[in-house]
Design brief:
The chain has strands spanning 7-18, 24-46, 53-63, 78-81, 84-93, 100-110. By secondary structure, the protein is mainly β. Strands 1-2-3-6-5-4 form a six-stranded antiparallel barrel.
């Protein structure tokens, strides 16, 4: 199947940054932009500490990249589109020809 890759997403990977006090904080390092086809799946509400959280699951399809390539998404990385953040949970080949990757992701927002 050919997807309509009509959304540009920034792929980011977690990076540990020294906090100046002997510890570390987590930051995000950009890896590059990928064109994607984004499909909403299911959603639910969960209890948060300050407010309820809305959790929505997505399938995000991108062009395939070889294993080990910086352009190939991995679990625990994330896609960013403006103020929206999609945490990548899993990545798999979507077709037998190896043209696309299907990324299962979750967007969390404070309700």
């Amino acid at each position: 199947m050919a997807y309509r890759l009509n959304r540009q997403l920034l792929l980011e990977t977690p990076a540990r940054v020294a906090d100046g006090a002997g510890g570390f904080t987590q930051s995000w390092m950009p890896l590059g932009h990928l064109w994607a086809h984004v499909v909403a799946r299911s959603g639910r509400e969960a209890a948060g500490t300050a407010a309820p959280l809305s959790r929505v699951s997505y399938k995000i399809f991108v062009r395939a990249a070889p294993v080990g390539s910086q352009a190939r998404p991995k679990p625990d990385q994330r896609f960013v589109e403006g103020t929206r953040v999609f945490r990548i949970l899993a990545v798999a080949e979507d077709d037998t020809d190896g043209r696309y990757l299907a990324c299962t992701a979750q967007e969390e927002t404070v309700a």
